[in-house]
Amino acid sequence: MTQALAQLQQRFDPSRHGALVALAVILLFNLAVTPNFLQAQTLFVNISQVATIAIVAMGMTLVIATGGIDLSVGAIMALAGALAPLIFLSDFATANPALGLLAAIVVPILVALCCGVFNGVLVTYLNVQPIVATLIFFISGRGLAQVLTNGNLQTFSNPSFSYLGTGKVLGLPFQGWLVLVIALVLFWVVTRSVFGRQLLAVGGNERAARLAGIPVNRVKIGAYVICAGLSGLAGLIVVAINSASDAARIGTLMELDAIAAAVVGGTLLQGGRAPIFGAILGAVIIQLVKYTLLANGIADEVALIAKAGIIIAAVYLQQARKE
Amino acid sequence: MNDLIQMTGIGKSFAGIIALQNTSLAIRPGEVHAIIGQNGAGKSTLIKILTGVYRRDEGEVRMNGKPLAISTPREAQDAGIATIYQELSLVPLRSVTENVVMGYEPRNRLGLIDWKAAHARTREILARFGVKVDVTRQLGSYSTAIQQLVAIARAVSLEAKLVIMDEATSSLDDQEIETLFSVVRNLRESGVAVLYISHFLDELYRICDRVTIMRDGRTVATHDVAQTTKLGLVSEMLGRDAREIQAVGLTALSGGHGQPGEVLLEAQDMRSRTGLRGASVTVRRREIVGLGGLLGSGRTEAARAIFGLDPLTGGRVVHHGGVRIDNPAQAIALGMGFLTEDRKADGIIPHMSVRENISLALLPRLRRLGAVDRARERKLAQHYIDALQIKTAGMEQPIRELSGGNQQKVLLARWLALEPEILILDEPTRGVDVGAKFEIQSIIRKQVAQGLAVLLISSEFEELVEGADRIVVLQDGRSVSELQNPGVTEDALIGAIAHQHERNVA
C-alpha cells in the first residue's frame, strides 16, 4: 500500500496532473457549497457554455505549439457570428431555406479560414511577431463585424440554425459532442499525423525543423488557419445559443480565456507541446470557476481575478518542474 | 592545503537511469583543474549539480569546508562559482555590456542602472583579455569567439572564486585560445580556481595543474598533470589497455582513399551576402571532400549555400539531377543531408524523443494516409540506435537528456536514415569525446565505402588530413587551392592556408 502510494507520488508530475487536482478541488467545493450542483441542468449549462471556450482553446493550443499566439480569435468569432444571421435572414435564404442555412454555416467559416491565412502569412512570409500580426484582426475584425451589421443587434428565430447551440443528442448538448469530435480529430492530428509532428517540431526548434526540410511556413499557416476556422465555428455557436447576434459582444475576451485554458492544460508558451485534451481540461476549469462564483452570487468581476489566479498557478507549476 | 570545493559521494539519476554514482571532486584554491571523460561519463551532470542547475540525489558539497546548499544558478554565482557553458547561454540581442553586467548592474544614486559605469567596467575587463569591441553593440553581431570571451568576462566581473569552463575553446582559433589561456593564467595567479573541461588533451598539458578522470558516472582518479601521459589518460578514460589504443591510431576516418565515382554536385564560383566571394567545390560519389580554412573563411557558409539555406548572389550549384536547390526540403528530396555545427540551435528538437528526432527529415517518406507510419518509424529508430550504439534509456527518451556525443549520433542517424547521396558534415566531432569520435568517424568511413559522398568541414587538421580524399582550402570566402590525398600532411595543409595568406598580404 505504502509502496503503491510512493509510486503514485513519483509518477505525479505537477505540470501535467496539477490541472486534474485543481478540477477535483473545484468539483468537491461545489458539491459542498453550491446549491443544486448535482442537477442535470447544471451539467447542461456548463457543457453548452464550455464548448465555445474549449473549441477555441484547442485551436489556440495548436498556434501556441508553433511558438506563436493568436489574439484575433474573439474578433473572428464576432465576424463569423455577425455574418451568419445576415446570410440566413437575406432574401435568398428565405427563398431557399436549406441552401441558405448551409451558406450561413459554410460562408462564415470560410471567411474565418481566410482570416487565418492572413494571420499566418503575416507571421511567416512577412515575419511579423505573432502577437502584432494577430492584433490587426483583434482590432479590425470586430469593427468589420459591426460595420456589416451597422452596429445593430440582429435577433432571429431559426430553429435549424439554433440547433448548433441548443440541440441535444442522446440527451446532451449538441456542441458538447462537437467538442468531442473535434478533440478526437485534433488529437489524431497532433499525435499521429505528419502535419502534427511537423507542427511540434517547428515549435520545438524552428531552425532545426527548417534544416530537416519541414515546410515551416506552410505548417505555421496551417495552425493559424485551423485556429481561425474553429473560432468561426465557436462564433456561430454563440449566436445560435442566444438566437441573437451582437457583434460588439460575441467572443469578447475569448482570446484570454483560450490562452488561459491552453496554459492551464499544459501547453508551453514557448512552443513544442500541444496537449489537446489538456486544453479541454483547462477550458472546463475556467468555466467551472466562472460558474462556481456566479452560482454563489459573487460578481463577474471577481471571476476575472480568480481566472488570473488560476493562470498564475498553472504557469508556476510549469516553471517549478526541475530535474 | 584546504580544498576550495569538496564534492563527495554525489549521486544522481534521471528517470531511473544512473548518471552519477558516488562521485567525488576536490578543487584547491588557485589551481586549474581539468575534468576529462567520454561523453556520457557524467562531466556535465556533475558541473550542473555544482552550479545548482540540477539537484543532487545524494552526497555532499562543501566550499571552504562549509556545507554548500545551492539550488539555483544565481545562488551559485553569489557563492562565487561562475560558469561558461559549452553551448553559450548569453542574450544575443542585447549589448555586450548588458550581457556582462546582467543581474549585477551598477546602480546610481537614484537606483537606476549606471550605464556609463557599466560600459566602462565592461571595456576594462575585455581590454584585459586584449579584446577591443564596441560594448554597446548587440552581442549577436560578434563572432562566436568574441561571445565566448564575453561570457568569460562576465564570470571575471562577478569576482568568482571558481570559474568553470565547459569546452571553452571549442569555437576559438589559435590566437583566441592563446588569449584565453593567458586569461586563465591571470585568474590562477590572482587565486581563482578554474575547473576546465575539454576534449582536447593537448590543452590540458598546456594549462592544467591537476586532472580528474570520469568514466560511467564515477570519478576514476585524480592526478597531477605533470605526472601523466596522454596515452595513460586516454586509457583511463576509455577503461581500456594503453597498448591496445596505440595500435589503432588517433582517428578512424583514414583508410579509405578508394577510387571516387562520378561527379554528384558541382558548386561554381559561389557568391553570397553571407560572405562567399567565389567558392568552388566538386563532390564525387565515394569520396570525402574536406573544406579547410580558418574560422570565418566561409566553410559553413559554403555548405549552407549548397544546401539551399542562403541564396546565392552569383555563381551556381549544379546537381547531377539538373535541379536547382532553393531550400533544404529540395536538397533533402535530392538525397542530401546537412549535419550542422551547432547541435543545440540547428539540430535537436529538445522536447522530442530520440525516435522523433531520428525520423524528422524522413517524415515525407514515412507518410501513410497523412499519418506517420509508426511501425516503420520504430523499426528505423531501433535500427540506428543499435547501429550507431546510441546510449539511451530507449527510443522514447527525450533527446535533451542524452549526452552531447549521443545527441550528435542521433542527428547523424537522422541524416543516415535518408540514405543520402551527399552528406555535409560541419564539425561532426566537435564537443564529442574520444570514444564517440572514433565511432562517428568509422561510421562515416563505412558509409563512404558504400558510395556516400561527404563534404567535411573540420577545424581539426588531423581529421581533415587523415579523412579527406581532397581538401579545398577556403580563405575569405574564396577557394584558393586544392590538396590531393594521399600525400597531404598537417604541415602541408597549414602551409596551404598560410601561404595564401602571405600571398594576399604581398
Distance between the termini of chain B: 56 Å
Named CATH architecture of chain A: Orthogonal Bundle
Helix content of chain B: 25-40%
Count of individual domains of chain A? 1
Q: Mean pLDDT across all residues of chain B, rounded?
A: 83
- Please estimate the helix content of chain A: over 70%
Report the sheet-strand fraction of chain A: under 5%
Radius of gyration of chain A: 20 Å
Q: What is the 3D form of chain B?
A: globular
- CATH level 3 topology of the largest domain in chain B: Rossmann fold
CATH class categorisation of the largest domain in chain B: Alpha Beta
In CATH, the topology of chain A is named ABC transporter involved in vitamin B12 uptake, BtuC
Give the strand order of the largest sheet of chain B, numbering strands 1, 2, ... along the chain. Answer: 6-7-8-3-9-10
Assign an overall shape of chain A. globular
- Poorly predicted runs of chain B are 501-506
- Count of runs of 4 or more consecutive helical residues of chain A: 15
Please identify, by name, the CATH architecture of the largest domain in chain B: 3-Layer(aba) Sandwich
Taking pLDDT < 50 over at least 5 consecutive residues as the criterion, the unreliable ranges of chain A are none
Query: Any idea what the CATH superfamily of the largest domain in chain B is called?
Result: P-loop containing nucleotide triphosphate hydrolases
Rg of chain B: 24 Å
